[in-house]
Structure formats: structure tokens, C-alpha cells
Design a protein that fits this description.
Elements: H1 8-11, H2 16-28, H3 34-45, H4 49-60, H5 71-76, E1 86-93, H6 102-116, H7 122-125, E2 139-145, E3 153-160, E4 164-169, E5 175-180, E6 183-185, H8 189-200, H9 208-283
Helix pairs in contact: 2-3, 2-4
Length: 284
């Protein structure tokens, strides 16, 4: 059994706060030996933590607020990282996922294969008439760090069949976690807790984002409508011109035909006159 320090008897009758202050005062006076320092800390370890912290604050100043330290500082001093907090950047459901491009479609294919072992195309996974379809249950969330600068996505989460899902590194097909019975399965406890909290929380986008999305969505539609009208006018104009040209050709043909008929009639009349003249001459 460790021997009790000599100074402990001196502070035993005092209250914890007075004992802590007396020990700190003894350390501040002169140059204590290593043995005296060890004995003082042995005594301080037996006192309540908050009392010792207050006693040290009078000597060393207040401790820094650990909650305000960034992760780089925490890693440098061997402190645990700050809790990760995630927010939803975007949320698409069912067939809207197919509009996100080939990466999202490949994620859906991989998620389906991991669920029932069937390797099917993304479109087939949303066919409600097929067995193993995710139609009506598919949800894709893109998650980002709340405290990070900008909207840099970290994870793409595909949830389906009510309580199942797969978590991908954002923009890739690399699986980082699985979801079963609404529980995220991965080794990193910090990330696991953050993803579960983000999936439970409602997907609330910032107020500025919907306004921007609506403005961008409306502008292309307006341009397309105008373009279609212009094209339609050009096509109509061409048809009208074509009809006029055809009409002119038809009229021209009729005029030529009439002239030809007139010439033939005149020629026939001239021949007839000549024949009559010859007959009259013979009779004379």
C-alpha cells in the first residue's frame, strides 16, 4: 500500500477548497522538489475535480473553452474531435433519382444488389410491378458538414424498403456504411452518430436555396417556350411560301396550256379556211 504523503495530515482537517488552495500555494512558493510535487498532486487527485480546477485557475488562469477549439488544435493536443454535425444538401425520392446522372444510378444498382443479391438496372429497381422494387420507398440524401465552409458534400445516403439503406462517399460508389433496421453500421462512432442524427432530423434546406433553384428552373423553361414559338413561326412561313410558289406554278401551267390551246384552235381555223378557199376555186 502506498504511503500517505506527510502534508496530507496538515490539510485533512480543512475543507476541500481550502486544502486545494493550500496545496497550490505550497507549489507556488520557492522551488519544490520532485518528491514534494508528486505528493501535492497525489493529494490533489483525491479532491473534487471542479475544486482543483478553480484552485489552479487562480494560478494558471482559466482553462480554454474546449468547445471552441477546432479539430486541428484538438488533434495537436491529443484531445477528442468535436462532434460531427451533418445537414441535408438535397433530397430526391423515387424516379427523381434517375435524373441525377450515372453515379446515382450506379449507387442504386449497387444498393439493390446488396439488399437482395439481384443485379438489376436502376430503372428496374423502380418498376413497381417487379419483385424487389424500391418504388415508393427510395430516398437519396446528400449530407454535408454543418461547420464546414461552403456546401461540400460528404455522404450520399440511399434509403429504401422502409428501414434499409447504403451510405456512399459522396459522388462515388465507395460504400462507407450500411443501414439496417434504421441503424447505421460502421466502425467510426463519430460519423455513425452524425449520420443517424441527420437521417432522423427533417431535411430542411436553407431559405436561399429554394429561391435559387426556382429561379434557375423557371429560366430554362421560358427560353424553351420562346424557342419553340420562333421555330413554329419559321415553319409556317416556309409552308406558306411553298404554297404560293406551287400556286404560281399551277397558274403558270394553266396560262401556258390556255395559250397552247388557243394556238391550236387558230391553226385549225386557218387550215379550215384554206380548205374552203380551195373548194371554191375548183367550183369556179
Amino acid at each position: 500500500m502506498a504511503q500517505e504523503p506527510r502534508d496530507s495530515a496538515k490539510h485533512r482537517k480543512d475543507d476541500p477548497a481550502s486544502r486545494a488552495k493550500a496545496i497550490i500555494a505550497s507549489l507556488r512558493e520557492g522551488a519544490p522538489t520532485s518528491g514534494e510535487v508528486s505528493e501535492a498532486f497525489w493529494e490533489l487527485d483525491r479532491l473534487p475535480l471542479d475544486i482543483v480546477r478553480d484552485a489552479l485557475a487562480a494560478w494558471l488562469g482559466p482553462l480554454p473553452d474546449a468547445d471552441r477549439l477546432d479539430n486541428a488544435t484538438r488533434l495537436h493536443h491529443g484531445l477528442p474531435l468535436r462532434p460531427l454535425r451533418l445537414r441535408t444538401l438535397s433530397l430526391e425520392c423515387d424516379a427523381d433519382v434517375l435524373d441525377l446522372g450515372p453515379v446515382a444510378e450506379e449507387q442504386l444498382r449497387i444498393a439493390g444488389a446488396s439488399w437482395d443479391g439481384e443485379d438489376r438496372a436502376a430503372e428496374d429497381r423502380l418498376d413497381g410491378e417487379l419483385e424487389g422494387s424500391f418504388a415508393g420507398t427510395l430516398e437519396r440524401r446528400v449530407l454535408a458538414d454543418v461547420e464546414a465552409y461552403g456546401d461540400t458534400p460528404l455522404f450520399d445516403v440511399l434509403r429504401f424498403a422502409g428501414d434499409s439503406g447504403v451510405v456512399f462517399a459522396s459522388g462515388s460508389t465507395r460504400i462507407v456504411a450500411w443501414i439496417a433496421y434504421n441503424r447505421v453500421e460502421m466502425r467510426d462512432r463519430r460519423i455513425r452518430i452524425a449520420i443517424e442524427a441527420a437521417l432522423v432530423a427533417p431535411a430542411e434546406l436553407s431559405e436561399a436555396e429554394p429561391a435559387i433553384e426556382e429561379a434557375v428552373a423557371k429560366e430554362p423553361v421560358a427560353k424553351k417556350v420562346v424557342a419553340k414559338k420562333v421555330v413554329a413561326k419559321k415553319v409556317v412561313a416556309k409552308k406558306v411560301v411553298a404554297k404560293k410558289v406551287v400556286a404560281k406554278k399551277v397558274v403558270a401551267k394553266k396560262v401556258v396550256a390556255k395559250k397552247a390551246v388557243a394556238k391550236k384552235a387558230v391553226a385549225k381555223k386557218a387550215v379550215a379556211k384554206k380548205a374552203v378557199a380551195k373548194k371554191a376555186a375548183k367550183k369556179r
